[in-house]
Amino acid sequence: MRLLTRLRARAAADDGSAAAELVLVTPLLMLILLLIVAAGRLTDARLQVDSAAMQAARAASLARDPAAAISQADATAQAALASDHVTCDPLTVTPDTTLFQPGGQVSVQVSCTVSLAGLTLLRLPGSQTLTASFTSPIDVFRGAGP
User: Fold this and answer.
1) What ranges make up the beta strands (E) of 18-125?
2) pLDDT tens digit sequence for 19-39
3) Residues in contact with 41: Cβ distance below 8 Å, sequence separation at least 6, in sequence order
């Protein structure tokens, strides 16, 4: 009988410990979850900048002259990032048209500075600069008539 009384007294002493542990651990788990979301959003922005560089290089390789290639690359990169809701401050598009000739290539480098302050509930300070480059070949038979 005394053993049963001791066990009940010991069990009564542990009442509420699970709730206290939950209260202490929940904020840490929420912080870890928010950091995972922030890393995911930053990775998504990095992929969108890569895609914008690829689209800009392809658009520049289809242009008829180097001046048109530069304007096409800039417009395409801005449109690609805007359609994916990526806000860059500043956005820099640098096309390289030195080999702009049939059989040559066009390279485009896109640099986007993304603010980290808008990430969900974390209010991280600062910004991250994401850079991507892509090279697209120019058709060998460009300008050749039928």
Assistant:
1) 91-96, 105-115
2) 777 778 888 888 888 888 778
3) 119, 120
What's the pTM value of the predicted model, to 2 decimals? Answer: 0.76
Domain locations in the chain as residue ranges: 2-137
Residue 8: C-alpha distances to residues 13, 19, 51, 118 (Å): 9, 19, 65, 52
- Is 133 within 8 Å of 109 (Cβ atoms)? yes
Residues of 28-63 as b/e, b for ≥16 C-beta within 10 angstroms?
eeeeeeeeeebeeebeebbebbbbbbbbbbbbbbbb
Total residue count of the chain as it appears in this document: 146
* Burial track 73-108 (b if 16+ CB lie within 10 A, e otherwise): bbebbbebbeeeebebeebebbbbbeebeeeebbbb
Quick: pLDDT tens for 51-65.
Answer: 999 999 999 999 988
Q: Cα–Cα–Cα angle for 69, 73, 78, nearest 5°?
A: 155
